[in-house]
Amino acid sequence: MKEVLVLRDLDCIKAIAHPRRVDILKTFNKKPLSAKQLSEILDEPHAKINYHIKTLYNVGILELVEEKIKSGIVEKYYYPTANSIVISKKIIDYSLDKEMDKGCLSISDFKNTIESFYDAAESGALNGDSVLECSNLLLTEEEICELRSALKVKVDEIVAKRENSIRENEKKHDIVMVAIPSNN
Fold it and tell me: Residue 133 class from Cβ within 10 Å (0-12 exposed, 13-18 middle, 19+ buried)?
């Protein structure tokens, strides 16, 4: 099972947009379930639940994990393909103000970084050391500039001292520092 599934097309997003399908996903509790079991838990007709399961299965949100034969009937057991589901920001990258793209900062400025983050999360490449989060710090603009400068100096220092050859365990990384003012 993947840790994260990133929905990157409208068919996937439409599949989870139905409230009953969200209910189905929330019903799984660390074990596969059949359409019959889900219909009993959710008090919904088997045919409706089966329809929703097939929709989620067809777009890759659910996977078939087991088939059991009970009284001559094949009972299929499903489970979500990931622990978490997120929607790619590229799917909703939209602005009416075309002038805004020319000089102002917007979430679309981070779309490649966000996609890289999602890709790394999906592949299991992220670990606890991959993200440094500092929340609710009281800082001045000068302190933010100081942090940004210190990070830039350190990155430049590391890049300058490396040789032009490929080093063992070397991987490309995106490093982003964002200071987000909070209204709280």
Answer: exposed
* Domains of the chain, earliest start first: 2-86 (1.10.10.10), 88-161 (no CATH)
The one-character DSSP state at 167 is: P
Residue range 94-107, pLDDT digits in tens: 555 555 444 444 55
Whether the predicted pLDDT of 50 surpasses 90: yes
Q: Is 48 left (phi over 0), alpha (psi -120 to 50) or beta?
A: alpha
For residue 100, the model assigns a pLDDT of 47
In one letter, which amino acid is 164? Answer: N
Q: Is the pTM of this model over 0.70?
A: no
